[in-house]
């Protein structure tokens, strides 16, 4: 009944370079070569049965158990067994009436390694905070109508890890099976906003198959994700930033906290190893403007190719992006899987 759509990196060569890596050892099993701490947190979504106040499983009219999806962080318990710790949208552990973290012990993902660290730090945000308005699109973006286009449905599928394949930009552009689609104005605004993360074009291209998310674009994304939450604080737990990057990219940002200080070139966010936290000193003003021209459905696991014109992105005038429609974060509803600036 449980399923996971956690997107995990498949890395074979980084161990000799002294970096952490994740690789698929067998179906839904992970081997952490560099340890859980080095690889940051692994996140995913699990299906859980809905219960009433009496603790009884709620069923539908056909007698089938009603389920709901929850965000989780995978870790090992004291017996070396994988458990999925239920977390909220800020990456904080959800606790029961006794203050203990709520866990799903029958997780669909297994991790075989020794856990070195303890519980993650938590970020406390003042109540009543508002999201930063500067991250919202300034106007509605409507892609021109395409001949024979189809509208996107409300439902979408989720595939097991071994069947999920993110197409490359080149594969998507040359595909004869892609179909032009119409996204709602709201969805187009969200996508436009995600592609207008300041400085995202500093890396000419990024593919989901890359061993690591480039530290420079991950830093820009982390700042944008923090700003849109509107928290009135400069300090964020490592797990919070890792979760935000997971939402945006749809996969764990391996080694981001180890690379951000020296490899990102961004002084607005720094990692503090002493207390496993990030410090954000400033947000970034808008740079590029994205005008969506066409969106095409690519199949498999709800992947789409976005073609757009851009201004204010250095010497780039066009952008191709692979996005995935998902439920990782309710206010986004999408993840950016690949980028190509031309």
Would you give an account of this structure?
- This protein is an alpha+beta fold and 342 residues long.
- It is 15% helix and 28% strand.
- The strands form four sheets. The chain has a seven-stranded mixed β-sheet with strand order 8-9-14-15-16-17-10. A four-stranded antiparallel β-sheet has the order 3-4-5-6, with no helix packed on it. It has a three-stranded mixed β-sheet with strand order 1-2-7, with no helix packed on it.
- A hairpin with a 5-residue loop joins strand 4 and strand 5 (82-86).
- Helix 3 crosses helix 4 (238-249) and helix 3 packs across helix 5 (256-263).
- The longest helix is centred in the middle third of the chain and has 15 residues, at 215-229.
- The N and C termini lie far apart (44 Å).
Report a brief summary of the structure.
The chain has about 350 residues and is α+β, with helices and mostly antiparallel strands.
Portion in strands: 25-35%
Which stretches of 5+ consecutive residues score pLDDT under 50? 1-39, 111-141
Number of helices: 5
Based on secondary structure, the structural category is: alpha+beta
Please state how the strands of the largest beta sheet are arranged side by side. 8-9-14-15-16-17-10
Give the biggest beta sheet: 7 strands, mixed
Number of strands: 17
**Rg (C-alpha, Å):** 20 Å
Shape: globular
Tell me the span between the first and last alpha carbons. Answer: 44 Å
H/E element order: EEEEEEEEHEHEHEHHEEEEEE
Mean pLDDT: 74
Percent helix among the residues? 10-25%
């Amino acid at each position: 009944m449980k399923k996971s759509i956690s997107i995990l990196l498949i890395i074979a060569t980084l161990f000799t370079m002294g970096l952490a890596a994740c690789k698929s050892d067998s179906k839904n099993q992970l081997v952490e070569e560099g340890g859980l701490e080095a690889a940051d947190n692994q996140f995913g979504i699990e299906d859980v049965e809905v219960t009433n106040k009496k603790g009884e499983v709620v069923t539908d009219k056909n007698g089938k158990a009603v389920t709901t999806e929850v965000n989780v962080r995978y870790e090992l318990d004291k017996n070396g067994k994988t458990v999925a710790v239920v977390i909220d949208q800020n990456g904080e552990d959800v606790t029961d009436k006794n203050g203990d973290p709520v866990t799903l012990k029958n997780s669909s993902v297994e991790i075989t390694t020794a856990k070195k660290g303890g519980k993650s730090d938590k970020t406390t945000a003042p109540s009543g905070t508002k999201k930063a308005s500067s991250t919202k699109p300034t106007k509605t973006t409507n892609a021109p109508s395409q001949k024979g286009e189809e509208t996107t449905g409300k439902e979408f599928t989720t595939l097991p890890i071994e069947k999920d394949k993110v197409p490359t930009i080149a594969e998507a552009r040359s595909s004869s099976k892609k179909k032009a689609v119409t996204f709602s104005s709201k969805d187009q605004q969200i996508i436009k906003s995600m592609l207008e993360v300041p400085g995202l074009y500093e890396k000419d291209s990024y593919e989901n198959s890359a061993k690591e998310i480039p530290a420079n674009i991950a830093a820009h994304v982390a700042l944008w994700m923090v700003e849109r939450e509107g928290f009135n604080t400069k300090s964020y737990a490592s797990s919070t930033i890792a979760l935000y990057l997971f939402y945006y990219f749809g996969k764990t940002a391996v080694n981001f906290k180890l690379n951000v200080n020296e490899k990102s070139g961004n002084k607005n966010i720094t990692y503090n190893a002493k207390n496993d936290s990030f410090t954000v000193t400033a947000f970034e003003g808008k740079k590029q403007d994205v005008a969506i021209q066409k969106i095409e459905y690519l199949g498999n696991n709800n992947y789409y190719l976005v073609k757009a014109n851009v201004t204010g992105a250095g010497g780039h005038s066009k952008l191709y992006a692979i996005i995935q429609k998902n439920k990782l974060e309710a206010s986004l509803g999408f993840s950016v899987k690949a980028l190509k600036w031309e």
